[in-house]
């Protein structure tokens, strides 16, 4: 493991050494993003000294400039009678001065001027070593500002390639030529300044603008030469080596940190990191959650290493003048999407986000207050005339739905991308889909609302819906759940509930008692008084039957062979209907048997000894004998 890490470190050090050699031997011609030009203020005496040192000749009033053959070629004046212009100073003769000594002299000189150039974004910037020196804002004849800047850059490149560039940079000055002012360096004409340039830059004369341009060029070119020295490259190599060593220890530290995190996750599995459950149902195990967190940490580790390497390369490349623009451009490529797109979008979305937060908080508290009001109505601490307390929770649910729907309507325009065509089309599609799918559900919702506010049934009522008898367990806007006497849970859509007849036994029991009734058929030979007495005694002996109102008997049918009697009894326990009916039937059987009354339901269809009564043998007296048949013999024709 250590050998592998050493190999990686060795490769990185070699890479840094190669980059250092490239920065040392490769000329610094790349560019970097513009930077504002700053210069120190100057005194009036220094300005006068600058003017005397430059000794710019006055323009010839009768000269006429000829068309230039190149974008920044100096205008050629037609000679006319008059005084000849003063000759321009020649390039310094003698042995060339070492660049570093000349640069030391330039940097020790006091600042001579304070240019007052515009800081606006118009025009085309002139860049030296990636830094903006000034901007060309006016055209020169057929040459646009962009073409002029390209020509100036080419001429500056030729000046830097000159063996005496250090001395020539010191000699950058202005020369008048007809109706223009040239900026020259020895025999090199760098570019031409005209009156339109001065007007575009806000200067009163082109001479003043040309002097500021010359000053800025001298300063920028001298700075560039000083940067591209042997000492600078050696210092860059040293910084790169130190950065590489720091990278090595940083990578080891990050690896150690992530190993500790993995160990901690393994230790937390099953203790701190538990399974995701709903009551006793385990949705996601602790091992799965730990694996998900580990995967996220691994992805984070990759991102961290990529970021470290990117920052490292940016630092190393920025140490060398030749590769500094590449480093800065790489940083800009990484940060441009964030700085140019993501961050402005986040900043511009902050007001909408605050409004969304305000709506959500307001909606939450409005719903909480609404719940408090309806809960107190349910408890009857708050009363409203004509409003049944049982309506409180269903009304709260409807009100909550309407409040949330209204909040969503307010939030919709402020959601990210709400105004985009794609978002609108998806919204229309979802709306149509919801409309088509909710046609049947909407009818059930309306039926549920109708059932709630008509009081047809309530939670806990014993009801009969169509052929289903049971207790109401749950009532929603879509369906009603019934628990039958057989412990069967039946869910009935509210549309079907409303479409069938509903018998509410509990509502009847609260209003004077529920009447339970059953029928028996007795022969015509039994006195009806005896039957009435037996039925009433059976009802009074049955548990949960009220004495007041008292039970009563109706004769509901006179059949061909029997009379139908119906016993009616009151009860206040509709949930015990099945048990009460069973006990009442048992009591009727016992009472009728004791009174010797024969129940002819169902009617017999089998042939039997009709003389024997149908009372059970254990209820008959001990000396009971079935009556005999009466047979009469008739003689016809001498035969019986």
Structure, explained:
Helix 1 runs antiparallel to helix 8, helix 3 crosses helix 7 and helix 16 crosses helix 17. Helix content is 50%, strand content 14%. The protein is an alpha+beta fold and 640 residues long. The N terminus is likely disordered. The protein is rod-shaped and about 175 Å long. The longest helix has 55 residues. The protein contains 17 helices and 15 strands. Strands 11-10-9-8-12 form a five-stranded antiparallel β-sheet. A three-stranded antiparallel β-sheet has the order 3-4-5.
Topology:
Elements: H1 2-25, H2 44-54, H3 99-108, E1 124-128, E2 131-136, H4 145-161, H5 165-170, E3 172-177, E4 180-185, E5 188-193, H6 195-201, H7 206-227, H8 230-268, E6 276-278, E7 281-284, H9 286-319, H10 324-378, H11 392-411, H12 421-437, H13 439-454, E8 462-465, E9 468-475, E10 479-484, E11 489-493, H14 494-499, E12 502-504, H15 505-510, E13 514-523, H16 528-541, E14 552-558, E15 562-571, H17 577-594
Antiparallel strand pairs: 1-2, 3-4, 4-5, 6-7, 8-9, 8-12, 9-10, 10-11, 13-15, 14-15
């Amino acid at each position: 493991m250590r050998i592998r890490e050493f190999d990686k470190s060795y490769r990185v050090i070699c890479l840094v050494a190669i980059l250092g050699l490239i920065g040392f031997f490769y000329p610094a011609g790349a560019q970097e993003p513009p930077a504002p030009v700053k210069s120190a203020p100057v005194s009036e005496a220094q300005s006068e000294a600058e003017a005397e040192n430059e000794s710019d000749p006055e323009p010839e009033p009768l000269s006429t400039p000829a068309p230039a053959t190149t974008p920044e070629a100096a205008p050629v004046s037609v000679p006319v009678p008059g005084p000849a212009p003063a000759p321009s100073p020649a390039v310094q003769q003698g042995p060339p001065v070492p660049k570093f000594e000349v640069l030391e002299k330039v940097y020790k000189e006091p600042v001579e001027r304070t240019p007052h150039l515009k800081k606006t974004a118009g025009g085309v910037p002139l860049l030296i070593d990636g830094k903006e020196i000034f901007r060309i804002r006016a055209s020169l004849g057929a040459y646009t500002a962009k073409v002029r800047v390209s020509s100036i850059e080419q001429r500056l490149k030729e000046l830097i390639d000159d063996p005496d560039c250090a001395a020539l940079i010191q000699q950058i000055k202005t020369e008048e030529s007809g109706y223009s002012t040239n900026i020259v360096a020895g025999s090199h004409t760098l570019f031409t300044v005209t009156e339109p340039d001065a007007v575009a830059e806000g200067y009163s004369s082109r001479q003043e603008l040309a002097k500021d341009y010359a000053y800025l060029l001298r300063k920028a070119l001298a700075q560039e030469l000083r940067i591209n020295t042997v000492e600078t490259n050696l210092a860059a190599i040293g910084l790169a080596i130190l950065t590489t060593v720091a990278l090595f220890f940083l990578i080891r530290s990050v690896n150690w940190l992530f190993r500790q995190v993995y160990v901690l996750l393994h230790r937390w599995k099953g203790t701190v990191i538990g399974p995701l459950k709903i009551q006793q149902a385990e949705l996601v195990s602790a091992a799965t959650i730990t694996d998900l967190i580990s995967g996220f940490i691994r992805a984070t580790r990759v991102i961290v290493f990529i970021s470290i390497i990117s920052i490292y390369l940016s630092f190393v490349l920025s140490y060398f003048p030749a590769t500094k623009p590449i480093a800065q451009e790489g940083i800009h490529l990484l940060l441009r999407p964030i700085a140019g797109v993501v961050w402005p979008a986040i900043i511009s979305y902050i007001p909408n986000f605050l409004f969304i937060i305000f709506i959500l908080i307001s909606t939450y508290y409005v719903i909480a207050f609404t719940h408090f009001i309806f809960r107190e109505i349910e408890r009857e601490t708050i009363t409203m005339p004509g409003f049944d307390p049982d309506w409180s929770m269903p009304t709260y649910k409807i009100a909550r739905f309407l409040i949330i729907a209204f909040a969503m309507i307010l939030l919709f325009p402020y959601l990210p991308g709400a105004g985009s065509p794609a978002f609108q089309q998806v919204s229309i599609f979802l709306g149509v889909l919801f409309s088509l799918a909710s046609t049947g559900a909407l009818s059930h919702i309306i039926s549920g609302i109708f059932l709630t506010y008509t009081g047809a049934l309530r939670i806990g009522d014993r009801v009969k819906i169509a052929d289903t008898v049971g207790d109401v367990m749950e009532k929603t806007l879509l369906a009603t759940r019934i628990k039958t006497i057989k412990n069967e849970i039946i869910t009935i859509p509210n549309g079907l509930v409303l479409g069938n007849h509903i018998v509410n036994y509990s509502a009847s029991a609260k209003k004077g008692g529920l009447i339970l009734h059953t029928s028996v058929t007795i022969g015509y030979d039994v006195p009806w008084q005896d039957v009435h007495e037996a039925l009433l005694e059976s009802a009074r002996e049955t548990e949960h039957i009220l004495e007041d109102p008292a039970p009563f008997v109706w004769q509901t049918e006179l059949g061909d062979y029997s009379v139908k009697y119906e016993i009616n009894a009151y009860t206040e326990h509709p949930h015990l209907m099945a048990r009460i009916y069973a006990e009442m039937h048992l009591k009727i059987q016992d009472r009728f048997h004791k009174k010797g009354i024969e129940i002819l339901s169902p009617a017999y269809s089998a042939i039997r000894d009709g003389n024997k009564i149908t009372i059970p043998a254990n209820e008959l007296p001990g000396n009971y004998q079935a009556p005999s048949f009466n047979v009469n013999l008739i003689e016809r024709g001498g035969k019986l």
